[in-house]
Amino acid sequence: xxxxxxxxxxxxxxxxxxxxxxxxxxxxxxxxxxxxxxxxxxxxxxxxxxxxxxxxxxxxxxxxxxxxxxxxxxxxxxxxxxxxxxxxxxxxxxxxxxxxxxxxxxxxxxxxxxxxxxxxxxxxxx
Amino acid sequence: xxxxxxxxxxxxxxxxxxxxxxxxxxxxxxxxxxxxxxxxxxxxxxxxxxxxxxxxxxxxxxxxxxxxxxxxxxxxxxxxxxxxxxxxxxxxxxxxxxxxxxxxxxxxxxxxxxxxxxxxxxxxxxxxxxxxxxxxxxxxxxxxxxxxxxxxxxxxxxxxxxxxxxxxxxxxxxxxxxxxxxxxxxxxxxxxxxxxxxxxxxxxxxxxxxxxxxxxxxxxxxxxxxxxxxxxxxxxxxxxxxxxxxxxxxxxxxxxxxxxxxxxxxxxxxxxxxxxxxxxxxxxxxxxxxxxxxxxxxxxxxxxxxxxxxxxxxxxxxxxxxxxxxxxxxxxxxxxxxxxxxxxxxxxxxxxxxxxxxxxxxxxxxxxxxxxxxxxxxxxxxxxxxxxxxxxxxxxxxxxxxxxxxxxxxxxxxxxxxxxxxxxxxxxxxxxxxxxxxxxxxxxxxxxxxxxxxxxxxxxxxxxxxxxxxxxxxxxxxxxxxxxxxxxxxxxxxxxxxxxxxxxxxxxxxxxxxxxxxxxxx
Amino acid sequence: xxxxxxxxxxxxxxxxxxxxxxxxxxxxxxxxxxxxxxxxxxxxxxxxxxxxxxxxxxxxxxxxxxxxxxxxxxxxxxxxxxxxxxxxxxxxxxxxxxxxxxxxxxxxxxxxxxxxxxxxxxxxxxxxxxxxxxxxxxxxxxxxxxxxxxxxxxxxxxxxxxx
Lengths: 126, 522, 163
What we know:
Largest sheet of chain B: 5 strands, mixed
Oligomer: heterotrimer
Helix content of chain C: 25-40%
Number of domains of chain B: 2
Structural class of chain C: alpha/beta
CATH architecture of chain C: 3-Layer(aba) Sandwich
Mean pLDDT of chain B: 88
CATH topology of chain C: Rossmann fold
Strand content of chain B: 15-25%
Order of helices and strands of chain C: EHEHEHEHEH
């Protein structure tokens, strides 16, 4: 019980330090940096001109599919992390096979999307 | 020959045709056309396969004269069509349905002279902007009337469909090679339409020519195309020499050829570095600029400047060769021949480069003809047209360069054309440095005031065909001076080609056209 | 334009910050005309500004320290220059590179209608570099003058002691 608490204590310290690191990097420039504000400082940068209209428009549904495939890739990577840490003492072929089957199941989602042609963007699909 | 057939057809239509003297004027035939029949004449030219070179206007105070220059790839004799317009009723039918490349020229004439073109889809501002409320190139200050002002500011960018949006590939962009603004209508990643807005670097070169003498105006020619300034310089001094009938000494011609070819190599190397930088490759940039520095050292020893050389003079050169120039050029040629291996290893076979430029931005022959594209942009699409072969100037008739042609028309073809052109320029240089004749480098007496008349001269800059049209009225300042800029016509062809491309492909195509913006904006 | 100084300011901190800023000045690519080519030649391998800290040429003004205005300012591009200058984050500086940016250059004549004679009519300038176009060594000298303006002393007496 105590060792578990100690391990979590390490994680908590790590989280607190990471937060502090980010907050200090944001807070200190507010104190020591000069600031100039002109008429166009807060506007969106578009090569020096004013943008036409707002960016909240309806866009093609193909971008939604793009985001979904990104999620599939992301989930792959996420699950690979704990699997890799538990695959520490290698050597037995059954462990490798179990890991390979696991990764294959994750990859099936991406293979399906590839077969359906999501990665090829044609002009007429928009 | 094609020109004779066309002229017989035009004579049959009842138009007046006069023969001009090429050695003094730069044209072969002058065709006088009443303003209502210009579209018929343009269709006759289109049928015979002519391409449109330039459309320009001269203000003669009691009348405005429009000149349309046409030329042909196989029969390269320039024909000029003249239309007289009354300034009180300046309306002419537009030929942009026949030759879309004339569309931008007509827009320019409209905002600089006030001539209205009937049937033109979009006569809004191309170069100028709201703060200028007169027609700049007219001799008297003519204010812009109300309905014309409304026409000029009539371009609007509201979203037409719900999922399309307008985006600025703005004046400050690392890939537009200067201050070019492209307003793109995007659907997702695809470009539906590209609308260039020029004029951010409009430095009034043509108006300045009317208040400066010929000698005072000469340094301006180097500032038009700063990467290959000697082609523009050669154009200007060549036009003056043609107008006054001056015979430039042989030594000056050969040295001009040597420096022109060195300039061409330097310009292609700069293009190589920046084109690959646009595609994301930062390494070839340093190699290309290193080679370019060798050339600039040679030119600095000869002319005193690194970038904007003012080396030619009307009648010859500014100074003779310095010691060590020809040996330096020979050493450079030897060095450069070994450097091609680096470019081939690094770039030409590189899978990323090939995938980004093959079949990207294909310019078909007919599009290039109707828009007046020239230079490597045209030679990459299968047309062997080079002004150095069709209208030789300087010493190019003694050392004719080989014309490099590729058939595919995509950006990869244009890259290969330019790389080969460097090799061909090296061959011309090798021949030329052996045969530099002795003699004077400059004419002793050149006239201060040229004879009255008009002249056209064309040269081949690394970007394409440069032309200059000078009207002289016998004083020491030009009456009208008009530049024909290759990047202007190439960019017009680009707007046709970019429809339906991804924006990353548009960047690759724009880079492969080798645009220099101040020569467009003049 | 509203300018506000830092909240905490004392001698040693200012000196340290200015030293840090001077040694890593990041330019913005604002090449307009012929001088832009000389600016590009400066970034190439022969006259390298990376050895002075000015390595990263960013196109976006949000990520830069100073702007090299190289080329003619016309009436059409003046609002763009102003917008980009305002979009840069303080502290920021401007180098006017070339005759056109200093005072209109060779394009000033009677009856001219499009050129603004000098970029300092639009934004405040810190260093002026004359020439048409100035040599790349002049740009390096300008960067060192800017460093001298920040820290008070020069890094080297001359950019290149030997040609």
